[in-house]
Amino acid sequence: MATDDADKAFKGCDCAVLLGAFPRKQGMERKDLMEKNIGIFKGMGEAVERNASANIKVLVVGNPANTNALIMSHFAPKVPKKNFTAMTRLDHHRALGQIALKAGVSVKQVQNVIIWGNHSSTQYPDVNHGTVAGKPVRQVINNDSYLNEEFIETIQKRGAAIINARKASSALSAARAAVRHMRSWFVGTAPGEFVSMGVLSDGNPYGVQPNMMYSFPCKCQNGEWSVVPSLAIDSFSEKKMKITEDELAEERDLAFSLLK
């Protein structure tokens, strides 16, 4: 059913993928962009509250995805906040792909690279727990300089690079990432696999402040996600994770100040 009525769209809905958001236009300040999107996702949250299943699963793709998901969850209090997520699976796939290219293997042989934080240019693609055909990424690539610099920057700026090359966004790879995100969430992740999901940071095991949608390594089982605990975090990773956390906190605070 095609409709422009949010109440009709969310009626009895069990699953929602929020693809669109207001795009940044030339001359727009960040605050202006945030204000536009707050209005959109406040409305979406209210429509969910009025119409949707109380156990609806929501994926927000439209940017700024993490903060849009947080705002939407705020206006649908009947739905558990853990049921709202933001998509960092596209970044996750890009990271797997770049490692596969560098290692000269199929992307299916690369696993457990992590995207921490925001779906933005501050995100931290982390290979420290990743593997290539079961061996540690760092051992296979054997180039820490590349992995700590060029690789990170490539993933952080990949979206912009694709737009520059195609004069359009990465529509098909984003669609595939959305499908894979929801499939993992509903059906479960493979044994030993973890995937990147922007989820509520409350009670996380990595010291990230609460009340934000932060991308963590997650496992999924029985329709529920959980953050993978007890991964060793070195000082380099800590600094990178904090940069993206600070950006998310700034976005969140700006969003809620505009709501007031």
Summarize the structure.
By secondary structure, this protein is α+β, with helices and mostly antiparallel strands.
The rounded distance between the terminal residues' Cα atoms is 35 Å
Q: Radius of gyration in whole Å, from Cα?
A: 18 Å
Could you list the spans in which at least 5 consecutive residues all have pLDDT below 50? Answer: none
Shape: globular
What's the number of domains? 2
Number of helical segments?
9
Strand order of the largest sheet: 1-2-3
Mean pLDDT: 95
Kindly report the name of the CATH homologous superfamily of the largest domain: Lactate dehydrogenase/glycoside hydrolase, family 4, C-terminal
Largest sheet: 3 strands, parallel
CATH architecture of the largest domain: Alpha-Beta Complex
| CATH fold-level assignment of the largest domain | L-2-Hydroxyisocaproate Dehydrogenase, Chain A, domain 2
Tell me roughly what share of residues is in helical segments.
Answer: 40-55%
Element-by-element helix/strand order: HEHEHEHEEEEEHHHHEEEH
CATH class of the largest domain: Alpha Beta
> Care to count the β-strands?
11
Structural class: alpha+beta
Strand proportion, as a percent range, falls in 15-25%
Account of the 3D structure:
This protein is α+β, with helices and mostly antiparallel strands and 260 residues long. It is built from 9 helices and 11 strands. It has helices at 6-9, 30-51, 65-74, 89-103, 137-141, 144-156, 158-166, 171-187, 235-259; strands at 15-18, 57-60, 84-86, 110-111, 114-116, 124-126, 131-132, 135-136, 195-200, 213-221, 224-227. A 3-stranded parallel beta sheet has the order 1-2-3. The protein has a 3-stranded antiparallel beta sheet with strand order 4-7-8. The chain has a 3-stranded antiparallel beta sheet with strand order 9-10-11. Strand 2, helix 3 and strand 3 (84-86) form a beta-alpha-beta unit. Helix 3 crosses helix 9. The longest helix has 25 residues, at 235-259. The radius of gyration is 18 Å and the shape is globular. The relative contact order is 0.14.
